[in-house]
Design a protein that fits this description.
The structure is a homotetramer of 270-residue chains. Chain A is α+β, with helices and mostly antiparallel strands and 270 residues long. Chain A has two domains: 2-80 and 242-260, Immunoglobulin-like; 99-239, Roll (C8orf32 fold). Chain A has helices at residues 117-124, 130-144, 158-164, 169-182, and strands at 2-13, 17-21, 32-41, 46-51, 56-63, 67-78, 146-147, 166-167, 187-194, 202-210, 213-217, 228-234, 243-246, 249-260. The first copy, chain A, has a four-stranded antiparallel β-sheet with strand order 3-6-1-14, with no helix packed on it. A four-stranded antiparallel β-sheet of chain A has the order 4-5-2-13, with no helix packed on it. In chain A, helix 1 (117-124) packs across helix 4 (169-182), helix 2 packs antiparallel against helix 4 and helix 3 (158-164) crosses helix 4. Chain A is globular, with a radius of gyration of 19 Å. The first copy, chain A, starts with a strand and ends in a 10-residue tail after the last strand. The model of chain A has no long low-confidence stretch (mean pLDDT 96). Chains in contact: A-B, A-D, B-C, C-D. At the C-D interface, strand 4 and strand 5 of C face strand 4 and strand 5 of D.
């Protein structure tokens, strides 16, 4: 289904510097991007980069002088979300899994799966199928971690969240990823626009590799899975920051929206 | 200069499983690999994979039955090490740095540069050139961290080492990487064979991105820089494990060697 | 010198519960407390407890019903601060130190001195006298840690602060204590009222055991040492909370003041 | 019942220094100590100290010269263990609990109860009685944490163990304490001699404050509760080290034993 996504970001540059933004909807076989507009005010020389997995679309802005910066991104995106039945899908053996997928089994900055091995296997090790394991992980996080705005910061990791049991979408995603990897299920971080998310903001959830494809899960259950527009994937939030800032450029405000561009949306949850 | 590198690894498989090894010398413009031999006993179906950055050469072994496994790797490798003077090299601006290099600025599992920002800048922020900063980082680690076999484990990270000040080559490398990234200098983990390393073992050090190339640093100072044969690079040790094991396959023994295959080696240190 | 100290605290009880407050000025040979008033509105049955080291004066309030609670504490306190010259004082050997002092050598919740041993000894190990070591610790914290309101929370510990290098008075104190203990100098947490502290608030600093007495240090340098009125000491902030709350009783507001009750105050800093 | 307990410790002093040992059986109303012998070879001037809670019996040895040190402690101790039924005991309200008990509600070095609040309440919050909560905590640790010699070190804390789920008796005790405190049940660390513990060693478990008395729990279930001889209690292992060493005095060997001095021992477990 088609959505109109939009992000308005404002910064105040105190010096020159570099701003690398990751707000563009990803172009992929399953996701078509139309009518895209990206405007900066004042005009700033920019360059599109493809990063991490060669898919994420970064915009690098070379800020040459101090002053306010307004950035506006708009696009119509069709996410072509297809609901499938994964219950009976065979999980590929590590012996045959694609080499590009292997790094998503390794621990990363915010997803210390190496420390969660016993816990993950105690909680979910006896569940038969990989898909059912990830469903159980998702439900367990949803039932045990309290969504609380401001309760965590950019240093918070899955190792913290598994015990402290509070966080925001980023923390829910990191914990999901860490638990999956500890179960030998490749998992990666997903950022995007999310329809019906309240309050409107960028959203984070995670994808697990089930039966040779990446399947979307959202432990927050705050937005329907078929209302997600993918911006980027990566090992964790370190790979997929909305903005990487070099120099003294301060973030001042942000507005994000995701509206249906077609009618008759029927929300799909896990 | 040419070296004869060799690794003999032994495992005991209790069940079937998968073993992904990363012991092959990397093939790269600066490093030529000759006369390579890789033998398993018994014969095990294997496959070469190219991972992480498309360069690291992984061997995936599909272990079909229990029993002992002997693995033997031998090669002649010319590392073509060239000593250069980096002191006056201009560090590229983030505005022009290659997109493939950007991820090496982000924090990773064992290199939480996001937490070391103030510390790195207090210690090294006033040094002018990027190269001199990395030299100072390397010397500071060497002077402050005690090399102590067995003092750390696979969960130890740069955030631990910066305060606990003890570790092995892996920890020295992680701390070097984390400090570089905190100074906005891209840095990555390097594993390899090392000539004159005592006791003989795989070695770990790090590369910093200086003036558009990756330059090798070794904060342990335990082996000459021109005696290193690269196996792999990655964000940190999570990317470059000698062995990733899936299933109950136990490591039993290892022998690593790196001998000069030419005469007249003149060691180069920082 | 005499000061008029005052604390006004407000809570909203949602249920019954227990509130244990630690706002009373400590009575000690060096500190005389006059004209003390403690009032709750509405009246709540309370009891004075002596805790941790038998000196801290806790007030336990048994809240029997929901509703707003106003607490007011006022006193005139003479801290009898005496500036001494500790430079040439002999530090007592551990062989002769008082048994009551030993626990202040052990690591505690927020002061993991066991992890800072090498670092403390690298930084301060070559300084001769214990007093000069603590002075150096205090100055090092002041020079390297950035005072930043809101940058830390109640879980932040010295192990975090030594690397992250940001925090509030509580964090400065914890780091000072941890470094002293790592140098085998007993150290404890100090909470109190502080004259000329801006903005007015409870303050935290630390005491080190030098030549058989507890000597006050303040790594924040935000208030004069002779303007401190002691409320409590303990191993760290875990022992000396202003309020321990049991039940759903929410903190709503606080006003703290410390005014000179005599003239001619001459501030003393380290 | 009576037990013959014994500890033989050997050290090698490289320099002079101080050794503070905590191996003496505690004298308490419930525990009678007979025929006690404490011998050092060579003779070293020693002093008995009472620490932490005024009960633990420390021996401070002033080591005046380098050389080997042999320490031998022997005693007959009657632990007078009485099995009681705590199921229907009323837990005292915080409003009436003894002030000396309050510190055992606070977080400590190895028992970061402040971080385990939500987790403890999710797992055990709905159990009615305090005693049943501690029983559930004990069983949960026993079922989820793997006893694995050498898997942890002296820096490992409850916050690590709750996720990593491996450790030794010390770690089991710390986690039990942290979970109890997070449930507002005072809890403290217990070290002692343990009958039938294999291999023979000092043991650690924990006491929870139930109905105005300290009740012993052992999440390892490695030794019967009525076979424990108490050496010390404290907030955690930081308070109750077998040996605190100041100066270069190296531990070389240890033998611990606990034998029945009466017949007809009937083991009691939880």
């Amino acid at each position: 289904m088609k959505f109109h996504v939009s992000a308005q970001l404002e910064y105040e540059a105190k010096t020159d510097g570099v701003l690398i933004l990751n707000v563009h909807a990803l172009r992929a076989p399953q996701q078509a991007v139309f009518d895209e507009q990206f405007v900066t005010e004042p005009y700033i020389r920019s360059e599109e980069l493809f990063a991490v997995n060669g898919e994420n679309r970064l915009i690098r802005l070379e800020v040459m002088q101090p002053g306010p910066i307004k950035i506006s991104y708009n696009a119509i995106v069709d996410n072509n979300y297809a609901q499938k039945d994964y219950k009976d899908i065979n999980q590929p053996s590590i012996a045959h899994i694609d080499a590009q997928v292997l790094p998503y089994l390794y621990p990363s900055r915010y997803c210390q799966s190496d420390k969660l091995f016993r816990l993950a296997n105690h909680l979910f090790g006896e569940i038969d199928s990989a898909y059912e394991q990830v469903v159980a992980v998702t439900n367990w996080i949803h039932d045990n971690v309290e969504y609380q705005s401001g309760s965590t910061d950019t240093h918070t990791s899955a190792f913290d969240t598994v015990t402290e049991q509070t966080g925001v979408c980023r923390d829910f995603a990191h914990l999901g990823i860490a638990l999956c990897r500890a179960l030998t299920i490749p998992a990666r971080y997903f950022t995007g626009y999310a329809y019906q998310l309240k309050p409107a903001d960028f959203h984070a959830c995670f994808e697990a590799y089930i039966g040779n494809e990446w399947v979307l899960f959202d432990a927050t259950k705050l937005a329907p899975l078929n209302g997600m527009i993918k911006i980027a994937t990566g090992r964790d939030a370190a790979d997929t920051s909305t903005a990487n800032i070099f120099g003294e450029i301060n973030f001042t405000s942000m507005q994000v929206s995701c509206m249906a561009a077609e009618q008759n949306f029927i929300p799909v949850y896990l």
